[in-house]
Structures are given as structure tokens and as C-alpha cells.
Amino acid sequence: MKSMKKLFYITFFVLLSLHGFAQNSKIDSLQNAVEKESLDTNTLITLNELSIELYSVGKYEEALHFAEKAKQTANKLVSKSKNRIVILVLKKALARTHNTIGNIYSDQGIYPDALQNYFTSLKIKEEIGDKKGIASAYNNIGIVYKTQGNYTDALNSYKASLKIKERLGDKQGIASSYNNIGNIYHIQGDFAKALENYSNSLQLFKEIDFKPGITSLYNNIGGVYFNQAEEEPNKTKKNLLFSNARDNYNASLALFEAISDKRGVVASLINIGTIELKQKNIAKAKEYSNRAFSLSKYDERGEILKDVYNLLAQIETSVGNYKLAFDYYKVFIQLRDSIFNEENTKKTVQMQMQFGFDKKMAADSIANAKAQELKEVEIAKQRAEIKIKKNQQYALFGGLFLVLVFAGFMYNRFTVTRKQKQIIELQKHEVEQQKEIVEEKNKEITDSIQYAKRIQNAILPPIKLVKEHLPQSFIVYKPKDIVAGDFYWMESLSAVHSSPPKAFGTVHSELILFAACDCTGHGVPGAMVSVVCNNGLNRSVREHGITDPGKILDKTREIVIQEFEKSDDVVKDGMDISICTLQGNILKWAGANNPLWFIRNNEFIEYKPNKQHIGKIENPKPFITHTIELMKNDTLYIFTDGYQDQFGGQNGKKFKSSKLKELLISIQDKNMDEQQEIISQTFELWKGNSQQIDDVCIIGVRI
Q1: N or C: which end of the chain has fewer CB within 10 A?
Q2: What's the mean pLDDT in 313-342?
């Protein structure tokens, strides 16, 4: 697993601390109540509350004392009670006690004891059917495993918690579990799965308007995009990933500012400043770092301030100001070492507490063992003579009986094992035969589809031919499956004109016909329909000599309907299409459900199609041909609906036609080959790990 290249800030639940005076008053009140109460359910509840309050203010030794007392009280009450409902209440309280003890040990870094108590709590909750408590226990277990670096068990625990929360319909809990799972995948460097889980969590937090969770998720998603950008060698993709990271950090910054969380604001400013530095935007990097510095003076421990100084040192180093960079770096090292020493002191205390605890337990164990040993020796002396005589009498017969029983058992196991082996061998042979049959059938089907792909490719015009007739053009063609329902089509004809149209300095009479076609369905069914529709286009032009786009569509519809009517079944399949003829600077166009877009001097123009497809419909109307006089550098686009209908992005939504328009307008300064590359990369980044839902075909031509 690659190490994380950047510290990302995860601030999940923002809890308001109680005032110290109020806490102490409540603790004193609970302690007084414990001293007055007797062995009953109220005492157990009070002991639990007292241990939780002491734990919350960091008084671990006292908290553990009262939690152990609560555990003893609960066990005594359970053993005495006969009422099923009362026992249920007591066991629920006992599970809570074990959970508190687990929290105490976890905070002190005594993880084996923490896990032991969490698992005990889980077992009790499973026994009494406390679904919400079970989910919470799995979550606590996952946290300990994650802290220990045991990411596999942590992931399994988080997923178990998620499964239960989904059955309970607990949206906030589900969102929290998705975030925890995303954190594990992020640490492991599996960015795709991390983004998938973070996106699920963000969507749920937005649904319930839980702002702390939304803020955290924007930060986490930004961190994933940042780490992806760090590892991405392609400059275009790297910049796009940095842009995605920046957008998420900005969203997080806005929310932190709205709730006046200075620590969160500073963390977001550092993240954004780091991105600007990575992209060589030094002025902006300084702007964000200075804002972070002015807000971070509140940080007495220096946990966040040290990161500000680290960023300032990197910025000054990048511009060659090494003296100032060194000064900043010295402050960063001082703050880091100070925090490191404080944490080491805490860990040392924890180790001493653990050592003392282990030592006391060992001493108690030795003392008990010695006392028990003396007692047993005394009893043994009294009974030794009686037992010796009896043992001598029974030893021989008992031993012989055991030998016979063991021999019978071994013979029986040998017989059963031999039969089981024969059955297993027979089943294995049958399974292998079935596997061979399935693999052979699968190979036959795959080979057939691959052959169908070669046939379908044969009806598509070669890219070399397209470039010969339309030099400034591109085709983005992405079938969903091996074969597709989308296809592109092209014909070139020599036409005779008394006065040839202008061709921007070149006079010629070549007529170029091209189209982007979307047949019903995709995969094998769509490919079969595409063959019929492609044949209809070819016959309309080659046999009937039609060159007007609208009339070509009328004739193609007639041919397609004739072909499908040969079947006894009613076939309503057909084709959506956008078709053009180009001669010189005169473009003629017609469309069946699919439009024509073209861009002139960065101005977007759209021609809308007839709202009817090529196929059998009620009340068909003739298709309309539009004639357009083009200007030099006009760029036109025809396409199917697969690109804009694709789901993806952060929220798993459709790309939509509005976003496609913005993309096409933004790349008008690029040549057509560069446009093709950008359009393809944008589609793949948007789709991410989502499944492609339809075939994609886009044709672009620059005049």
C-alpha cells in the first residue's frame, strides 16, 4: 500500500463539552446517590451513569472502579431475578457497562482488554436482540482494529455495523458507517472505493441536513482527489483531479465559516493553499497560508499551527527564499517535537498503568495459587489412601474398556471416511464435467459475439476514409457492450452543379453525407437493429439516389418498416438519427429525435429535430430538411444520447445536455484531435466506477 502523500483532516462529529463545574456537580450528586442506594436496578443505573461521567472527564481509574462495581451488581441481580422482562433490562444495562469499560481501556491504549469488553457487550446485545446496540458494538470494535492498523478486521466490523443500520433505516448511522469504510479504503490507497463510500455518506448527510457530516465528507473527498492527483502522471488528468479536490475543500471551507469553526477553517485553508502550491500558483498559495496563519493563533498546543508553518516553509522554498523558509521550518519542527513529546508522555503513562495493572494481577494470581495449593495438599493427604486402593481396582478395567471403545471408534471413522471420500470424488467429477460444459458454452457465445463485432465493424466507415473527406473532424465511439446499437455512417458522392458552391477558396462538387445513429437497445439486440437501419440508409442513397437529408430519412423509414413487417410479430424497434450533407459551405441537415449543434465565434446554436423516430409510429410526418450556410471555423456536432445520459460524478447523477454544451464551448480553442481526447477523458472521469448505461457516439466537424 502506498503511503498517504498528504495529511487530510477528518472532523466528523463536533461535540460541545460541558462546563467543568457542572460536570463535577453531577459526579458528586451521583456518588452521593450510590452511597445511599442498595442492591437494586436504580443502583445499577446510577453506577453506569457515574462511570460514564468520570470517563468523559478523563478520570479513568475512578470510572473503571465504578464500572466494575456496576458489572458485579448487574450479574448479582440477573442471578437472583426470575422475571424475564427485568432480566432483559438488567442485561441491557450490563452490555452498556462492558461498553463503557471498553471505552476506558481504548482511550488508554489497552486494546486487548478494550476488545474483550466490546465483544462481551456485543454478545449480550445479540442475546437480547438489541439491533441498534449490536451496530454500535461493531462500530467500536472497528475503531480499535483501525487504531491498531488491522484494516481487514476493521473493514469487516464497519460493514457488519452498516448492514444492521440499513435494516433499521438509521440514515445518520448508515452515513457514518459509509464514512468509516471510506476512511479504511483511503488509508489503503483504494481511491475508487473510498470515493464510492464517501459519496454514499455525503448524499445521506445531505438528505438529513447534518452539517458536521457534510463538512467532514467534503474534506475527505477532497483528500482522495488530492492523493489521486499526486500519483497521476498525465498533466491534464492531474489538473482535473486537483480542481475536484479544490472544489470539495472550498465547499468544506464555506460550511466551516458558516458554523464559525476556526480549526476547520484553518485546516481547509491549508488544504487549498497546498493545492495552489502544487499547481505553481504561488500568489494564491501565500494568500491562503496567510489567512490560515492569522486565524491559527488561538491554537495553544500548536497542532494546527505547525501545519501552517510547514506550508509557509514549502512556499518560500519554492520561490528560492531559503532563509525565511528555514526560519518557518524551525518553528514547525519545534511545534511538532513539542506535540510529539506530549504524546509520548501520555503513552508512557498508559504503559505504566498497564504494567502496574498486569503486575497487580500477577501478584494476586500467585497468592491465590499458593493458598489453593496448600488447601489441595491438605485434602489430598486425607483422601490419598482411599483413592489409591480404588484406583488400583478400576485402572486395569477402565484402561481396557477405553482401548476397546477407541478401537471401535477408529474403525467406524475409517468406514465413514472411505464412503465420504468416494462420494466427494464422484461429486468432484460431476462438477468438473458441468464446469467444462459451461466454459465451452460461454466460449461459443463469446466467440459468436466477437464475430458479430467484426461484422458490425465492417459496416462502419474506416476512420482513415472519414479523415480523407472530413480532415478537421473526430468520432468518439464507445459501445456499452462488445457490439452496439449506435453506429456512424458516411457516404461521398460526386455531384454536378451549374454553379458550384463556395468552398472557402477551393471549388469542388463532392457531396459528403454523414450521420450519428442510435438504434433501439444495445448489445446484440441493438446490433441486429443497426444492421437493418444501416442497410436502409445505404439503399436510400445508392439505389434510390436520394441526397436530401429529410427525404433520406423518409425513404429509410419506409425500408425499415418493410423489413420488420416480414415478421409475424409486431416490431416497433427503430432508430434515432442526426444526418448531414455537406457540399462546400452549404450544410443540409435533418434529425429524428437527435439535434444538430454548431458553434460560431463561441456562440452556441441548436437545430431541433422532428420528434419521431425511424420506425413504425402512428401519424408519421415527413422529415424537415434545414439548409445552413456555414462560415469558416464553424464547428458542428451530431450525436446520440448516451453521453449526456451517463450517470457519475460525486453524486451519481446524469451528465445532462447542459453540461455537454458547456464542455463543447470551453474547448473551441482546441483542434479536433485535442477535442476528441478531452471529450473521451471527461466521460471516463465522470463515469468513474459506475457502469456505462448506453452506447456513445459523437461526431464533430470543423469547417
Answers
A1: N
A2: 81
The predicted pLDDT at position 407 comes to 66
Task: Provide the 3-class DSSP secondary structure of residue 41.
Answer: helix
In the numeric block, the cell 437545430 is attached to: 607
**Closest to 584 (Cα-Cα) out of 509, 636, 515, 672:** 509
544 neighbors 582 (Cβ within 8 angstroms): no
Cα angle 265, 268, 274 (rounded to 5 degrees) comes to 140
Q: Which long-range contacts (CB under 8 A, 24 or more apart) does 298-305 make?
A: 298/262, 299/263, 299/266, 301/338, 301/339, 301/342, 302/335, 302/338, 302/339, 303/339, 304/263, 304/266, 304/267, 304/270, 305/335
- Closest listed residue to residue 59, CA positions, set 90, 28, 98: 28
Angle of CA points 542, 548, 549, to nearest 5°: 95
H or E segment to which residue 568 belongs: none
What is the average pLDDT value for the chain, to the nearest integer?
Answer: 82
Say what the pLDDT of residue 34 is.
53
One of 3.60.20.10, 3.60.40.10, 1.20.120.450, 3.40.50.2000 is the CATH number of 461-702, namely 3.60.40.10
Amino acid at 220: N
Pairing of strands 635-639, 596-600: antiparallel
**Can you spell out the DSSP letters for 212-277?**
HHHHHHHHHHHHHHHHHHHH---HHHHHHHHHHHHHHHHHHHHHHHHTT-HHHHHHHHHHHHHHHH
Grid-cell match 484553518, residue found: 266
**What amino acid is encoded at 440 in this protein?**
E
User: How far apart, in Å, are the Cα atoms of 214 and each of 10, 217, 252, 260, 407?
Assistant: 11, 5, 8, 15, 68
Contact 306, 336 (CB under 8 A): yes
**How crowded is residue 144: how many other Cβ atoms within 10 Å of its Cβ?**
20
CA angle 164, 167, 168 (to 5 degrees): 90
Q: What does the block give as the cell for 201?
A: 455518506
Coil/strand/helix, residue 701:
strand
Q: What is the pTM of this model?
A: 0.47
CA distance 210 to 603: 42
Task: Tell me the C-alpha to C-alpha distance, in Å, between residue 624 and each of 62, 615, 621.
Answer: 86, 16, 9
Cα angle 72, 76, 78; round to 5: 115
665 CB-near residues (< 8 Å, 6+ apart): 599, 602, 604
Residue 508: all three cell numbers together? 469542388
Beta-carbon count within 10 A of 484 CB? 28
Burial class (CB in 10 A: 0-12, 13-18, 19+), 332: buried
For residues 655 and 647, what is the distance between their CA atoms, to the nearest angstrom? 6
pLDDT digits (tens, 9 = 90+) for 358-400: 444 444 444 444 444 544 545 455 565 556 666 666 665 566 6
C-alpha to C-alpha distance for 305 and 270, rounded to whole angstroms: 10
pLDDT score recorded for residue 355: 41
Q: How far is CA 25 from the centre of its chain?
A: 46
Name the DSSP letter for residue 302.
-
Closest CA to 288 of 307, 301, 260, 302: 307
Q: What angle do CA 173, 176, 181 make, to 5 degrees?
A: 125
Rounded CA gap, 513 and 534, in Å?
13
What pLDDT digit, counting tens, does each position of 49-83 carry?
888 888 888 888 888 888 888 888 888 888 888 88
Return the domain boundaries, the chain.
Answer: 376-459, 461-702
Which residues in 563-589 are b (16+ Cβ under 10 Å) and which e? Answer: ebeeeeeebebbbbbbbbbbbbbebbb
672 Cβ contact list (under 8 Å, min separation 6) = 472, 473, 474, 700, 701, 702
